[in-house]
Amino acid sequence: MATGHLFAGLTLYPPVNVFSNRIANFGRHSFKDPHELLVDRLRQAMGVMQHHDAVTGTEKQHVADDYAMTLSQGSSACQSVIAEALMNLLPNLSKFTGNNLPVFCDLLNISLCSATDGWKPYLNSSGQGGVYIFLYNPVAWNLWHSWLRIPLYIASEEMNKVEVIIRDLRDPEGPTLPYQILPISERTMEIPERRLFGKQTNVELTFNPASTGHPAVPAGFTTFYLALERKRQNLRTARVSKRISCAETNTVSRTTRLRLELTNRSIPLMVHAEHVASGMKLTLMVEMLYYFGETNGSQSSGAYVFLPKARDMLQQFEKPTYQVSLIWANHFSCFPKEECSRRQIPMSEHLKYHTFT
User: Per the database record, which ranges form the Glycoside hydrolase family 38 central domain (predicted)?
Assistant: First the structure.
């Protein structure tokens, strides 16, 4: 069975999994069904995705683009239905959100989220604000080691002046979750699609939802509260801090166990991990491999044809010569009323290959 790890066209395997979970989520929680037609659009898109080309990624690029557009349109139609179902499941949620429906973060693969970009997560002067994060676990078991990446904006000159508050609302009086703030890589910042949405993010908040001892519940939602607060300083004693570049920032909370650093320009990508307590270091190498499909010439058939792209010389060797030497042994055989006879039989054979010419 194809796993979806080899793709000639656009990578569709991850979004197919996400949208399949959304259909299943809707089916479990839609005790009110006013938007069946909206959900049916995503069902139809998922039906098309069962084609083997969509599963393995062996379709041509223009077909992959059409697959992606079909999935995107079906998902957008289904998002409002899931959001309303969530509001019905949590009646008290409306007073916290101001009757606004939850927003889906569909652009996390390019480090964007319309709910957390810019100044939206910041607390105002009266200490009010922040955002709620609803994490849905689609599998039927507890998740202990899933990591979330939340895109945020923190001005480079205020990097050391902003306090991050992240709490698990199952234990609102408990400790805040440990986290790490990492700058968004230059490669990601240069993605053209980021400019289309006009969002403002430059760092990512990374944390484990189960770091306080409560895993993400199976087939259900887990709610977190996130807020950014500027640290107050005494105007008389405040000093002008050194301007910090986001590319040099790597902030970890006191309870974080690992500090991670990424190299932006190296190929393959190198991930350097350091255990904060012991100082032990580990380096991981991440490399994306791909293959070329044939799209030109008489054999143009997408990703199914693999032709050499370079004219490498094939070294040929002449047929080797060999010498055979046999080891003989004397064998006696006697018959009644006859003389014994002696003959030689081969016991073993040795082949000696000569060097190639």
Answer: 2-71
What span, in angstroms and rounded, lies between the C-alpha atoms of 159 and 181?
10
Query: According to the CATH classification, is domain 103-233+243-256 in 3.40.50.620?
Result: no
Q: What's this model's pTM, rounded to 2 decimal places?
A: 0.61
Residue pair 79/101 in contact (Cβ under 8 Å)? The answer is no
CATH number for the domain whose boundaries are 1-92: 1.20.1270.50
Q: What are phi and psi of 157, to 5 degrees?
A: -75, -10
Domain boundaries, the chain: 1-92, 103-233+243-256
pLDDT tens-digit series, residues 190-224: 888 888 877 789 999 999 898 888 888 898 888 89
CB 166 within 8 A of CB 256: no
Using alpha carbons, select from 136, 177, 147 the residue that is nearest to residue 19: 136
pLDDT in tens, 259-276: 777 766 667 778 888 887
The full DSSP string for 45-84 is HHHHTTSHHHHHT-S-HHHHHHHHHHHHHHHHHHHHHHHH
Q: How many helices (H) and strands (E) does the chain have?
A: 7, 12
